[in-house]
Each structure stands twice: as C-alpha cells, then as structure tokens.
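In response to reviewer comment 3 from the previous cycle, which asked for concrete evidence that the modeling workflow produces usable outputs, we include below a single protein chain processed end to end. The sequence was submitted unchanged, and the resulting structure tokens are shown without manual editing.
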Amino acid sequence: MKFRMLYVLTIAAATLLSASVFAKAKNQGSMTVDQTIQIGSTQLKPGHYKVEWSDTATANQVNVEFVRNGKTVATVPAQLKSRANPSPYNDIVTSEKKNNQPEQLQEIDFNNRTQALIMEPNKTMKD
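The workflow returned the following structure tokens.
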C-alpha cells in the first residue's frame, strides 16, 4: 500500500513539474542578428540569441531578456502585441541606420506565433 501511494505521488509530482516546464516554454523564442543592433543602451553583436520574457503587473507589458551562450546580455521592457495571423517565420524589425549608429531593435516576430514583442526605444533595465 505504501508503495502504491509513493508511486501515485511521484507520478503527480512529475505531471505538475512537466506542466510548469511546458508553460514556461511559451514565453521564449529565438532570434538571429546578422549585424550589430542597438537595444536600449546595449549593442547586440551578430549571433544567435534566446529571447525570454516574463509578465509584469501592467497588461501586455513584459520584461525581455536576451541570452547568449547562457548569459543574459540585456533586459528591456516591451509590449506583447497580438496579431491576427501567426508569423510565417522568425523576424526582427529595426529602425533605419542614422549617423553611423547601429540600427535600433523595434520588434521581434516568432515563427508560427500570433504574439510579437514591441521594444520600447531607449529603455534598458540591465546592461
């Protein structure tokens, strides 16, 4: 009887743990940068970045972390925008280059998702 109870508790714990892992996976994506771009006061060098975001107290407001090689390189506030149709691919939108300055990251779209991240210009939480 004790073995059965332990077995049931183990299965229940594993189910809850796996559900929380899958729930968190919805708040992340990836992007590839081909040239140096500006995000707030941080310059992101060319390469592949993991993008993770967490909700804040304000509706549609999120904190976005840019992770490269396991290290967070920038954290910025952004708006989570819903689209009518899913994006057909991963894409980033940048501003035009001005005065030899890197382009500013404005938006990130994720493949097969109806949500996009809209960056708040010139705001950085962590450099």
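Strands lie at 28-33, 37-39, 42-44, 47-55, 61-68, 71-82, 91-94, 103-109, 115-119. We consider this sufficient to address the reviewer's concern, and the full set will be provided in the supplementary archive.
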